[in-house]
Write a structure and sequence with these properties.
With 141 residues, the chain is mainly α. Helix content is 92%, strand content 0%.
Length: 141
C-alpha cells in the first residue's frame, strides 16, 4: 500500500509539475505577445519621431530661406530708400532753382494769378514776384 501511495503521490506531483509548466508556458506566451506589442509601438514611435525630425529639418530650412529672403528685401528696401531720398533732394533742388521759380511765376501770371497768390505758392516775396514779372514784360515788347 505504501508503494501505491508513493506512486500516487509521485503521479500527483508530476501532474502538479505539468500544470506549473503549462501555467508558466501560458505566462511566457502572454509576455511574448506583450513584448511584440511593445516592440511594434516602439517602432511606430520611432517612425513618428523620424517624421517629426524630417519636418523640423524642413521647417528650419524653410525658415533659413525666408530669413535670407527677408534680409535681401531689407537691403533692397534700404537701396530704394536712398534712391527716393536722392530723388526728393533733386526734386527739391529743382523746385527751388531760379529758372523753375521764374517759369512758375511767369506761367501763373499768364494764367491771371495775383502776385500774392504767386508769392505764397513759390515762397518768394511779393517784390521778387513783381521783379520777375517786370523783367519778362519788357522783354516781350
Amino acid at each position: 500500500m505504501e508503494l501505491q501511495n508513493i506512486i500516487l503521490l509521485a503521479t500527483l506531483l508530476e501532474i502538479l509539475l505539468l500544470a506549473v509548466v503549462v501555467w508558466f508556458f501560458l505566462r511566457l506566451k502572454r509576455s511574448e505577445h506583450l513584448l511584440l506589442s511593445l516592440r511594434d509601438k516602439q517602432e511606430e514611435f520611432v517612425s513618428k519621431l523620424n517624421v517629426n525630425a524630417r519636418l523640423e529639418h524642413e521647417m528650419l530650412a524653410s525658415f533659413e530661406e525666408r530669413q535670407s529672403q527677408l534680409l535681401k528685401l531689407a537691403e533692397e528696401l534700404e537701396e530704394r530708400e536712398l534712391q527716393l531720398q536722392n530723388l526728393l533732394r533733386q526734386a527739391d533742388e529743382l523746385s527751388r532753382s531760379p529758372r523753375f521759380l521764374r517759369q512758375l511765376v511767369l506761367s501763373g501770371h499768364r494764367q491771371g494769378r495775383s502776385v500774392q497768390t504767386l508769392s505764397r505758392s513759390t515762397g518768394l516775396s511779393p517784390d521778387e514776384v513783381e521783379l520777375i514779372i517786370d523783367q519778362e514784360t519788357p522783354a516781350r515788347s
